[in-house]
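Re: your question about M28 family metallopeptidase

S., sorry for the slow reply, the queue was backed up all week. Below is exactly what I fed in.
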Amino acid sequence: MKKILFAAGILTLAACGSYQSKTAIHKTKKEDKNFDYSVKFAQSITAKDLGKHLFTYASDEFEGRNTGEPGQKKAVEYLKNFYKNEGIVSPLGGDDYFQEVPASWLNSNSRRGSLKDSENVVAFIKGSEKPDEIIVISAHLDHEGVKNGKIYNGADDDGSGTVALLEIAQAFNEAVKAGKGPKRSILLLHVTGEEKGLLGSKFYTEQPIFPLANTVTNLNIDMIGRVDARHKGNPNYVYLIGSDKLSTELHTLSEDINKKYMNIQLDYKYNDENDPNRFYYRSDHYNFAKHNIPIIFYFNGTHADYHQPTDTPDKINYEMLQNRTRLVFHTAWEVANRDQRIIADKAKK
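Result:
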């Protein structure tokens, strides 16, 4: 029933002309030198496609994606197959999209049970002019698994961020195929073990595929599919955390890009150093920030279904998931294509 209702809703949106098909973006007239390609390729990110991914990725089949367990293995295969089918390569080469994270390492870095071997999933879009400079876009692929016979699907946490990465990757790949790929390289990083203590991102920053000195920024997406009680009357928002912690340029760029393209309310409530929730320290971006890499954390806030078996894909606000995903894409596009690399002028000594 949930799938039927979702499909009906998406068909209604399509009928109203709210979303433009991927093929339509290639049917524009010959663009002049001032044409805004960021808008063109952002249109490929749609609520319909995000929903198709999420109703699979957060389904019972994946058994809550607990780190190292069979459901999580199904999830990483889903991600790998997506990238292979899209022709988006792995930075590891060949058919290897998995950065292996051994059980021995996981268990030596976590106190949350006996963990099995797991993996980060990585995909790569090579920059056309400055390929050695890397923008990392991340989301965690895991969730809570099965507890007391109930599946914790993790649709918002962090199925929403995971499927956002897929759509962002596809949008950048459309640009590459059109001969308009990003100047800097994009690493799509799906990290494991976030729920066990930010483990996958810790592993990556300790054993990076690309030197951390070459990493320009980390844009981290962890829960962007829901509307919290604070914004019940105005769902067009997203919490931004950390954008001003290390780089004045990144923060200013982020705000300017939002005003230019999306006009989403940027809420900095949880960016306050005195915020008792301490969300800045609680998602995967923090492992990059510890190395003085400028970050932005995109977040919709918590809700009654947070870390509950009721966090299911039928409760996602797909219009806002689309808009927030487009915001991340526009921001990444600007960081990737600007003349000068952003600097960490507030880097901790």
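The chain has one domain: 44-337. Residues 155-177 form the longest helix (23 residues).

Happy to talk it through on Thursday.
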